[in-house]
Write a structure and sequence with these properties.
Layout lengths: L1 H44 L2 H12 L3 H16 L9 H5 L3 H14 L6 H10 L4 H5 L3 H11 L2 E2 L2 E2 L26 H14 L3
Antiparallel strand pairs: 1-2
Helix pairs in contact: 2-3, 2-5
């Protein structure tokens, strides 16, 4: 009888230990992913100077200057001193993490109205896809331009004529970056990159 009681106690304790080990494994797994996220954040902190001015401009609501600063940040990342020197092929290699930081600042300070992620959602809502970027489908780009307020009555507006307030159409900004000398080819390549990066 006492052996049976003893075995039962041992089994109960072993079960309790097994549950504790599973809980400990879960904690360690959670800790590992938190450490990985922290490491990503530390990498960005090292580059905080790159984004500080953009953040300050957006926080102050100065969307016009933030639009210019977005170009300067992209030039810094591509190491090209001139917008005209940034080619569609450069976009194939553009770091997704950097796109997410720029996008995160725009979406945060515009209450979710502006940013690359908002723009790619709008692009997809008018029929944009990987296929349309590969096929250089400009009709989708024109539809996108109409929705975000870049195109009125069949004509593209100049960046200076856009509304640089939160009242601008959703997805309107950042806008100047899209005004590349490579035209719709760059637009298609950049939309493709946003899709690849899952923004």
């Amino acid at each position: 009888m006492s052996n049976e009681v003893h075995e039962s106690e041992v089994t109960t304790r072993l079960s309790a230990i097994e549950v504790q080990l599973q809980q400990l494994n879960q904690l360690l797994s959670n800790l590992s992913s938190r450490i990985a996220k922290s490491e990503d954040n530390f990498l960005l902190v090292a580059d905080i100077h790159k984004y500080k001015k953009l953040q300050d401009l957006l926080a102050a609501g100065n969307l016009r200057e933030a639009d210019w600063e977005t170009i300067r940040v992209i030039q810094t990342i591509t190491k090209e001193p001139d917008l005209a020197a940034i080619t569609p092929d450069d976009m194939r290699e553009f770091p997704c993490d950097e796109l997410r930081v720029i996008d995160g600042l725009w979406t945060k300070y515009s209450q979710g109205r502006f940013g690359f992620s908002v723009q790619i959602q709008t692009y997809q809502s008018v029929g944009g896809s990987f296929d349309t970027t590969i096929n250089q489908d400009n009709t989708v780009i024109e539809k996108f331009g109409e929705v975000v307020g870049w195109r009125v009555d069949g004509k593209w507006l100049k960046c200076d004529d856009l509304d640089y307030t939160l009242a601008a159409p959703v997805g309107c900004h950042p806008s100047r970056w899209w005004n590349s000398p490579f035209g719709s080819k760059m637009t298609n390549y950049f939309f493709n990159r946003l899709l690849v990066c899952s923004l």
